[in-house]
Design brief:
Elements: H1 2-25, E1 31-34, H2 36-42, H3 44-81, H4 87-140, E2 145-148, H5 164-174
Parallel strand pairs: 1-2
Helix pairs in contact: 2-3, 2-5, 3-4, 4-5
Length: 188
């Protein structure tokens, strides 16, 4: 009976030792973080495309600023003439003010919608490429998980866990900008 108990104990010990060895053989869990907003804005393609989006939006912003100034000028004129002008003049100013405010609101709504559509398309395109880079890098370097870094929600992060700069470098290597056209030859 004692030998049976001893045999069971030895067998259990061998099983536990084997389990311990199997657990020790597993690679450690590796996690990393990517600051996606910085990565998208720091890639060469991201810089160029964000600049193009800004250049597209600038005339619309200027138009809205011009309309806003016209609205403020009309409001000022209305206040100035309120007590001194006849009802027809005040009524005309009110109609012009309301029309200008509606024009401003319509243009603002359209500009916002168009900007958001362009921005979403840009983020979808760049984000898809960035995801491809992150996935490949994580697989090649045996990361268990890669999280999106939000610096505002972080108490501590080891610099080795932030792979943003590496991802930017890999992105620029995989998706280089087309070489700029050579400068025109000087006139003779």
């Amino acid at each position: 009976m004692r030998f049976e108990k001893l045999g069971v104990a030895v067998f259990a010990g061998v099983l536990l030792a084997g389990t311990g060895l199997a657990q020790q053989a597993e690679p450690p869990t590796r996690i990393a973080f990517v600051y996606v907003q910085r990565a998208l804005a720091s890639t060469e393609e991201g810089k160029v495309r964000l600049k193009a989006l800004d250049e597209w939006a600038r005339p619309r912003q200027d138009e809205l600023a011009r309309l806003d100034k016209e609205i403020n000028d009309l409001k000022g004129e209305l206040v100035t003439r309120q007590g001194a002008a006849n009802d027809d003049v005040v009524g005309d100013l009110n109609r012009r003010l309301v029309a200008k405010q509606r024009e401003f609101e319509d243009k603002q709504r359209l500009a916002k919608r168009d900007f958001e559509e362009k921005q979403q398309g840009l983020l979808r395109d760049l984000g898809g490429k960035l995801q491809e880079i992150i996935t490949k890098y994580a697989d090649e370097n045996r990361y268990t998980a890669v999280f999106i870094l939000n610096p505002n929600d972080l108490a501590y992060l080891a610099t080795t866990a932030d792979i943003t700069e590496t991802v930017i470098k890999l992105y620029n290597e995989k998706y280089p900008l087309a070489a700029k056209a050579p400068a025109a030859a000087p006139a003779k």
